[in-house]
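pasting for the record
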Amino acid sequence: MSERVGIFIDGGHLRAAVTNVFSKIDESYWGDIGSPIKKHFPESTIDYEKLTLKIMEDLEQKIVYRRFYTCPPFRERGKGGRFFEHDARWSAYQKFKSYLNDAGYDVREGRMHKRRGRTYKYRVSSTEGIEFYRKPKFEQKAVDTFLARDIATLVAQKRINRICLVTGDSDFIPVVQCAKEDDGVFTTLWHAQGNRCSASKLLKKECSDAHILNDIEKEIRR
């Protein structure tokens, strides 16, 4: 049977890696990446075609699936039922999504959930006194579920027999275990290593091998 590999990228992990772990690069090096895109989606500074080549460097399998998991910006309905969103952020997301598609990745989207956040106070003026406002908090929903479901489905249907997973989240331990124990499908893990962005020790233990993205950072930046 021919070897078939699926690449599954947790966009949130790459965002944390670029923001908290990878070195800052000179502004003049950003090439054709527009300022709004790199501001709202720092993971867009990765060259995903180069990343794919590095992931597959030591493997001889045929790439069958390339999937990227993320959330679009939060959209809120205004008067008349029309959607309201920050134009710059939404436009940047569409460009980033188009770039991923051009690199051969199918973008799987969760949803952004808005909930009540912390209450802050600030002084309006010496005469008007202090006012309070509540800053909303946004959370990604269903992204990890979609990723785990896709891996489980493709493995069960014998469409892939090798998994390349870019993440550090321990939530994926059960699906990695099932793929290995029930179907003999092994996982190669790629993850960043640093403050506020690393990989679960248990996840690394369940994978057949693990590689650190920090080591190839300069080779995969745009």
